[in-house]
Here is the input.
Amino acid sequence: MSTVEPVTEHQAPVSAHREDFPILARPMNGRPLAFLDSAASAQKPACVIDAEARCYREYYANIHRGVYQLSQRSTDAYEGARKRVAELLNAPDHREVAFVRGTTEAINLVAHSFVRPQLQPGDEILITGMEHHSNIVPWQLICEETGAKLVVSPVTDTGEVDLEDFRGRLGPRTRFASIAHVSNALGTINPVAEMIAAAREADVPTLVDGAQGVPHMAVDVQALGCDFYCFSGHKLYGPSGVGALWGRFELLRGMRPYQGGGEMIRYVTFEKSDFAPPPQRFEAGTPNIAGAIALGEAVDYVRGIGLERIGAHEQALLAYATERLEAIEGLRIIGNATHKAGVISFVLDGVHPHDIGTILDQEGVAVRAGHHCAQPVMDRFGVPATVRASFGLYNSREDVDALVNALHRVKEFFG
Ligand code: PLP
Here is the structure.
């Protein structure tokens, strides 16, 4: 077993950053909180909370409009956050990053502004069988409107994409492929670079849903070769209600706006409106200004620790947790891919996941129990729901031990 985290002479272990998160100092039912639900939403470090508060306390004003100093300062901070997100993704140009509400909005934006206008009846959109609902339903909606078809590359028994199957489904009618970087329900890290390369060979543009990718690994959109990449700020230790969509500039430039309103136009008359260039074209109305600024702070925070270090730390925890959970009689892990992020879904014989979640909560262990907005994955594995433990940079072996001990309590309780 690898050590929990690589420790050098000068670096504290990654999990020592737990102290940066005020909420984690609060006991839960008289115990230290073992927060194992970061895949749903991560907790926030003090620097992110402070950055948002500082904006409101010290320099808040609407952006891109005011000639006065406060507005200029807010605008600079907001645009600075855009540059940080571009650097995080290694985007060639910060104008390729649009702030959105989150992954869900980003996918809907691409569906409506890029894909839908091209669709003819009989065209196809390709996804995988392990997508989150937000990478299924937007495509279903535009398929319904246009007569296009949603094609699904199924998940294998181990919870992986079959690359050959995926390749085989890229046909002459495929207009777009949209794939999860990491499955939120199974933890599988998809071979997205290979999938994107296959799609490019077939001349099919791609979107990567990076909601569960960005928090766990360094992402380089240029190396991946995708056309769009999106993520949610709240899973990256940033605020909720803000996220980012990256897209190739030449594609963004040709796209219709997703929403109309202020800030996204160049000139408006009653006859016609002329749209602003990207990214403003996709940021209609007053955005989540303080949220975007705090997301920029979250990006600095994770980059300061190092996404490789965070990823290695979570991998070690995943290995430790897998070993300990597998030793529990009657427990079955759902999703046994070779490459997984720090997400473990499991079921326990004879006990409903919701009951497990409730008892774990009493023991100070926070996990998610349910279908994880991935009902087709539950159907694929023949379970109504799972319990999901997911790791963030602040987790340690103690959290895993607390989970395992609490699961033994569950077993005692249910005999
Ligand atoms: N995609 C994946 C893989 C997710 O895990 C999630 C959230 O859990 C989403 C998309 C949707 O993210 P949001 O609700 O922040 O828009």
